[in-house]
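quick q for whoever's on today - can somebody do inverse folding on this one?? i tried earlier but teh output was garbage lol. tokens:
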């Protein structure tokens, strides 16, 4: 059972650390250090990997956490599912709206801003869910 607890904490820590590092360091730094067009292309190329990393580490954490706390495992499994949703559904919509906006479609610009806010909110909710689950596991 100790290896399960250790695996839960390690996989959850990798997930949480990756999310914080990407959100607080990588994304802002890319837009500070690269010209806007290059930054946008780089971030667009990076997001599928970020979402895949999040989905896989959250899924691993959820599987291990199932033996520790079923409710928390469900929370982390939902986080994994939201990563899949963001990668497969939300990201293509954001990219399409951004492309249309750059093509001169003002309505697409509004849609892009809405979808971008939604993705940021979703990421924050996921981060809080993982943080809460890890705090509960570490406290038990």
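ok took a stab at it. sequence:
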């Amino acid at each position: 059972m100790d290896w399960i607890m250790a695996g839960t904490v390690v996989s959850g820590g990798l997930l949480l650390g990756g999310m914080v590092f990407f959100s607080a360091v990588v994304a802002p730094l890319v837009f500070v250090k690269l010209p806007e067009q290059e930054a946008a292309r780089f971030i667009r190329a990076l997001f599928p990997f970020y979402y895949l990393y999040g989905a896989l580490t959250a899924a691993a954490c959820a599987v291990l956490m199932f033996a520790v706390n079923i409710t928390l495992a469900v929370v982390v499994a939902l986080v994994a599912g939201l990563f899949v949703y963001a990668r497969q559904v939300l990201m293509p919509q954001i990219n399409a709206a951004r492309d249309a906006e750059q093509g001169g479609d003002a309505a697409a610009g509004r849609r892009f801003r809405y979808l971008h806010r939604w993705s940021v909110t979703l990421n924050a909710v996921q981060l809080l869910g993982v943080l809460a689950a890890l705090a509960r596991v570490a406290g038990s």
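fwiw The chain has a mean pLDDT of 95. also The radius of gyration is 17 Å. so keep that in mind when u check it
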